[in-house]
Please model this.
Amino acid sequence: MPGSRTVAIAWAVAAKDLAIEWRTKTALLASLVFAVLVLAILFFARDATAVPTLDVAPGALWVTFSFAAMLGLNRAFLLERENHALDGIRLTPASPTALFLGKMLGNLVFVGVVELVSLPLFVLFYDVAIWQGLPVLLLVMALATVGFVAVGTLLSAMVVRTRFSEVMLPVLLLPFLLPPVVSAVQLTWRILAARPLAELSGWLSMLAAFDVIFVVLSVLLFEAILIE
Amino acid sequence: MQSADPPVAVRGLSRRYGGRWVLRDVSLSVAPGEVMLLVGHNGAGKTTLLRVLAGLVRPTRGEVVRCAPPGVVAHHSMLYDALTARENLAFFARLHGVADRGRVPHLLDRLGLAAVADQRIATFSRGMLQRLAIARALLDDPALLLLDEPLNGLDEAATDIVLNVLEERRVRGGAVVVASHQFAELVALATRIGYLVAGRLAALEPLATRNAGQILERYRALARAG
Model:
């Protein structure tokens, strides 16, 4: 378990990132506009008489979530590039684990807000009944988000010093997004189809396993990435 | 800050970027209470040497022994434009584990920034940013301060404030390494001077003169000697 100093530093880093985002709203607005556009385009692109909603809705939801999140993840370490603030952080005795957890926590809140704002829009566009399965759907969203935000935070730190970091992040992140997003799509389809809970447990376990692997590996690799 | 150990010592330090050696075989040790002035033309290796001493860059060859993380003022402020001066310092104070809640207001006051403490630093002038960067570097009262062109952008009053802060630290036993190619104001504080020529520490000696012109002459002579 992380010590109290680790928690305090992680909290300070996350609070700082969220305060900056709240003031500038750059990534939040971009992500929300992007989410609305994707949901609308995918909705109008299908022929509702030929393709059942249930066949497209889960994919549309997770394409929206993952790509909108990517915009925010890209911003996570660009903040630290401003005035070389990352050097200032590296000069403190704060542990890389605490810094990583702080950046990840900030990203989780950011992506969580984007998802929670997009979800009602998704219901509006696709007219799907999610209320009965809402608690499980929220659990799936939380589990999938933790997985790809962990890897996204790590890769964002890795590419921030490269010249084309905005392009590099999606290229590197997409392969890692596949396992959690595929699991989440499968689970969302079953939730929207009101399938029995027993059918979800395997996918849920897989999603939880991805989270553990991704978070542990990201924490372990972050220190090496911090050193120039 | 009262430790008798050298806050930083390096031996045989070299650093290469691509195919170019930016630092070559540099050895030095900084004693507590010492203000070491590093002079050299642009590209002589001053900034790289300070970054290696700070631990921000790994040397290609050689050894660096550092007692604790130093306070660093570099070309960039290492601060966040969207935060206020107070918020910036409070954030870094938390990361340094500074328990004294009075430390941030004290430093803002000491560096002449108390009146603008709650303004976002995006509105700050170069001189205000530089003073805030110095305040950030002093947060945890480090045994060693590494300063790269610390007087850049400062007016006369701000220069006096910074020089007073540095003198105060020297008297209290803190070590300072300061790199500058505009060193006229800094020679009054310095106890030793290092001449960096094309990545080599051509000479490291006690300050024989406080005359900037003579120091420049000495540098030119060392540069000509290669």
Remarks:
- The CA atoms of residues 186 and 203 of chain A lie 8 Å apart.
- The longest helix of chain A spans residues 96-126.
